[in-house]
# Entry
Amino acid sequence: MVRQGLKLILADHFKKAVFGEARNSTEALARVLKENWDVVVLDITMPGRSGLEALRDIKRLRPKVPVLVLSMHPEDQFAVRILKAGAAGYLTKESADEELVGAIKKVVEGGRYISPSLAERMASYLAIDVQKAPHERLSDREFQVLRMIASGKTVSQIGRELSLSVKTISTHRARLLEKMDLKNNAQLTHYALQKNLVE
# Structure
């Protein structure tokens, strides 16, 4: 139903366009490889392999084809990751009716598309990030985990002390390393000592 709805919107604006459809990421990739498309509109939550994996495959095999990603997820959860993976634009399904035609025109012409609300949010994130020290971007729990790792505790020990699973602590660790642009515990500990975050 979603595909039919999108096709109706696009057919109304692109009278001579030829449309292709795919039910999952495998079909999408096969069609992209077999035919020459001007643009791919990719749903990030298709059946089978994730849309993010499909996006990476499409960009690897057909780097010049612009991919506009459509998602039911809020922009702030996925957009930056999707754009970094090579998408030419990102749209939420709820805004697709109003923004889809303009977004397609922009990416087909070689531009990138993000919604005005996402552009504003990204600008404010950048302004905040420039002013803040890396550890100030962490949630309270991430900051707590950072201090515990820097004080020499293992993931298992931290999990026991905080009554959380090893998997949850590992997730916090991965997130804080990403937010602070650090690669491992040694870099994390060095940073914490430098900033006097641990005794």
In short: The chain has two domains: 2-124, 134-194. The CA atoms of residues 24 and 46 lie 5 Å apart. The first helix runs from residue 2 to 13. The mean pLDDT is 86.
